[in-house]
Fold these 3 entries.
Entry 1:
Amino acid sequence: MLIHLARHICMKPQFSPCGNYLHIASIEGRPTSIPRSVTKRTNDNKAKPEITLSLLLTTHRLSTRKRTHSPPHLTHKAKLTLGKFTGLSLARPPFTFTWTPSHLHFTVSGHRLNVFRVGLFPSATEAVVTIPRLPVMLPLSASNREVYYLPPVSQSPGESTRGVVLLGSYAAGREKLELRRRSWASAGVAYRGLGSIRDNSVLEYECPPVGFYVEEDRDLGGWVALPENDPQEGGEGSVVAVAGTEAGERLRSGRLTRRIEVFDWGDDVDLEGICDWCGGAVILRGQY
């Protein structure tokens, strides 16, 4: 199933090893308008709308004494804009999440290794979002397969810096893992190889899971800060980070500020039964 207009697509929570923090990563989609020049060029007045996909990461400090009564306190927030797309698969999302005590490794399927290392805590010496310096090319089928990046277990100096890249299985007849984009999508999306390739280029035979080792220093070239460019202007991505207790328009001290509709049992619940006389359906509204 493909969606074209969405808000929150998926959400992944993770507790810190000490149990004092809760990290929440979510994918958000915002609808964007289609330029008229593109609509005239494609001669399609019913062109599919686009969504701008972003990764939102928040870190909340939990109370050490009253965990069930004191609300979590927002201590860190980061936003990563991926670019504009026309749809994606909900049955098999083209995103994977790998957690470490200090970072989230967020990987997007494509014919290149698109892994973003996002810091879970504020840091004065390291960029919030970093990417590999060197490109790593993947098989064409990787754009329709789940891609995982498993970082080295130890980050101590002198230890091995060998990570693992895993590609999930692929079968042409199964539910496709898709992240669709237009040919005129933002230059940053096309440059990074994000999204699915055309159907006529996808392999028609099954592929088993496969993986390979990479040295972060030699093969990836280390980690560098993600350029803070607007993808609409041809940049690779856009990152916005907020550290400390300052929060966005929807979060304040770990609480949602948006008003929530009250559930009304009389208006919001309908019970359906079967009539004993005619055997037809009977709808009961507000009679319970």
Entry 2:
Amino acid sequence: MTNLYRQLNKLGVGQIYKYVIMNNNSSNLPYHNNFHLEHVCRMALEGCEYYEIPEQYKRLITTAALFHNFNHTGSGKDDDINIIKAVEGFLEFNTNEEFVDDEEKIIINLIKATRFPYTQDCEELTIHQKILRDSDILQGVFCQNYINGVVFAIAKEANISPEKMLEGQIKFLESATFCTEWATKIYKGALPLVIKKVEEVRKYF
């Protein structure tokens, strides 16, 4: 994560990072925690590099990434609530008008693009929204511990047994689609190893 922190400092969002880490009520959730926010942010920055996104927009994307699951309920059954909480958290932070007018609107729309299940088609999104949405799912296969950090963590939040979660993993992994060429390409490269991990662990359950 060292490179992430260096980039956040370069973009001038270190205090935003500190605010999120110190105030996120969902920091201790099994999956939608501070690590998840960091990891999505890191992947989003990789997407920004791939598409040569100007720094002014990188700053907006990283801010949205850090807030996109802020104060998450720990349930994905009604993600509209989670989006509302994330936007409210960002707006409360932004009372000092760190971001003004169009910038604030862009960040809010970036957060809304991560709502799952998706309500907008890829064609309706800006490249910035596509990068953030893709990063939200893409980061999972690059998690340092996919089984415990993603599969079992989501199972705990969703109150699903580890067995059932593992059972549906390969179908989910193989059916995942993305809005960007960047995400599609690197996901395809990472997929075989992740599937192998799932298959191995399934033997124990």
Entry 3:
Amino acid sequence: MTAEKISRKELLKTEDEFITFSSKMIILAKEHQRKLKFMGVGLVCLILIYIGINTYLRYINTKAQDAYNIAYYALSKNMDSKADQDSIKKSEELFNDVSKKYGMSKAARLVLPELAYANFLQQEYDEAISKYQEFLTKAPEGPYQSLAETAIAVCYEEKGDIDKALQTLEKISSGPNDFFKEQALLGMARIYRAKGQKEKSNEILNKFIKDFPDSQFLSLAKANIKP
């Protein structure tokens, strides 16, 4: 009986406290009605600004992607030894336009490696390396980093700086067991083979066979091991 009375008393006390609290909030709201009104207007403005910015960024990203695709298509037609230099220059201009007009877009982040590749096609290896290295300072960890480093190694090899090409490939080969490590090991083996260092080449190829037993390049690695 006593427990029931205590529970009811506590319940009434809780209800009274809730009513008192609610009343105070209503009074407070009335006293600060003007301020709350301005806060509400401010919140609506912030929401509108947020929506406007997101809409604008979506528009920019769409326009930038369209411009990037046009530039990429123009460059992709010159990915062989018969590259047309005038077309490559035109592609460079198109990629530069993406950076200038849509610098805030996602597509603009990928312009540097495309410009670097255009330099590579024109045998401007130092310029290509410089752009790839700049991209490395901005690119997120992962495939983009490995792809840029692989491209740098190729540039060094093409310009005849074999030692730097090997250093770059060794850096990639110390990473995770992925496609880029496969290519790095095969590239190192090929370069050492060309330098007449058969034992070093075989050592790298044996490592490749051990690390990548299921690789599609396994037969190539085995075929290049020289007795």
